[in-house]
Amino acid sequence: MLFEKINITDENFELKTDMYVRVESGKISSITEQRPEDYEGECYNGEGKLLMPGLVNSHSHLPMTLTRGYGDGLTLQSWLFDKIFPFEDQMTDEDAYIGTMLGIAEMLASGTTSVSDMYMFGESVCRAALESGIKCNFSRCISSGSETPLEELKGFKEAMAVKEKYDGANNGRIRVDYSIHAEYTSSEYTIGKFADYVNAHDARVSTHISETKTEHEECKARHNGLTPVQYFEKMGIFGTGKAFGAHCVWIEPEDREIMAKNGVMIAHCPSSNMKLGSGLADVKAMLDAGITVGIGTDGAGSNNNLDMFEEMHLAALTASVKNYDAAAFSAKDVLKMATVNGALMQGRTDCGLIKEGYCADLVVVDLEKPHLTPKNDIVSSLVYSAGGQDVVLTMVDGEVLYRDGKFTTIDIDEIMKLADKAVCKIKSRL
Amino acid sequence: MLFEKINITDENFELKTDMYVRVESGKISSITEQRPEDYEGECYNGEGKLLMPGLVNSHSHLPMTLTRGYGDGLTLQSWLFDKIFPFEDQMTDEDAYIGTMLGIAEMLASGTTSVSDMYMFGESVCRAALESGIKCNFSRCISSGSETPLEELKGFKEAMAVKEKYDGANNGRIRVDYSIHAEYTSSEYTIGKFADYVNAHDARVSTHISETKTEHEECKARHNGLTPVQYFEKMGIFGTGKAFGAHCVWIEPEDREIMAKNGVMIAHCPSSNMKLGSGLADVKAMLDAGITVGIGTDGAGSNNNLDMFEEMHLAALTASVKNYDAAAFSAKDVLKMATVNGALMQGRTDCGLIKEGYCADLVVVDLEKPHLTPKNDIVSSLVYSAGGQDVVLTMVDGEVLYRDGKFTTIDIDEIMKLADKAVCKIKSRL
Question: What pTM was estimated for this model as a whole?
Answer without folding.
Answer: 0.98
